[in-house]
Sequence to fold (95 residues):
Amino acid sequence: MQAHELRTRRAIDDWGKLRMIVPVRCFTCGKLIGDQWEEFARRVKAGENAGEVLDSLGIKRYCCRRMLLSHTEIIDEVLRFYEEAERRKEARSFY
Fold:
């Protein structure tokens, strides 16, 4: 395996451990929101109302609120496709 492939695989393994690809800033106004994601997700998963959690975190603008409310964790699905592509690439190199 080449050096750049090792770096790519290591970075994706790190992403898998982090399990998040949340935007760092709001796409519309640019406010920093990435640091609020873990707290928001933890409290909503515990059963709190999402709107009240956003209010308590100080996220008032509707553009920033939509960034957290509409975020979905897709890293596991992306990794499956990456791993399948790697397996196919390795299978082709054997022939």
Notes: Residues 1-13 have pLDDT under 50 and may be disordered. The radius of gyration is 18 Å. The CA atoms of residues 4 and 10 lie 10 Å apart. The chain is about 65% helix and 0% strand.
